[in-house]
Design goal:
single chain, 114 residues, alpha/beta, Leucine Aminopeptidase, subunit E, domain 1, five-stranded mixed sheet, 3 helices, globular
Length: 114
């Protein structure tokens, strides 16, 4: 059974096992991603330049032990074009994230909405 808690907060202040950040088409970061960029000494843009992550819907990459982050991992999840994002697509992404985090042993996660 999944236990869900909803709260408001900034991505860079979350102390969960994982912080899940949407990545829009064209490697564009959402506001939550931008706040993480600032506290991680630009580790996210450097990661995006080195790896094949474009923000395409459904793709994901996980960074571990990023300096400046209070979470053990930051998961970037491709959300595609923000204008085409629907509730159904958000549910699909949430299910994918839950499966991947469960397989990776995460006990809790903060999912930042676009």
């Amino acid at each position: 059974m999944i236990d869900i808690h909803v709260k408001a907060g900034q991505a860079h202040k979350q102390r969960d096992d994982a912080v899940v950040v949407p990545l829009l088409d064209g490697r564009k970061m959402t506001e939550s991603g931008k706040s993480l960029q600032q506290v991680t000494d630009k580790a996210l843009p450097a990661f995006l330049r080195k790896f094949d992550v474009s923000g395409k819907f459904g793709e994901s990459k996980t960074l571990y032990d990023v300096q400046g982050s209070l979470s053990a991992r930051i998961m970037l999840v491709g959300s595609g074009d923000e204008k085409l994002l629907t509730l159904h697509k958000l549910r699909m992404l949430a299910a994918k994230v839950a499966r991947e985090l469960d397989a990776g042993g995460a006990r809790d996660a903060a999912i930042c909405l676009p």
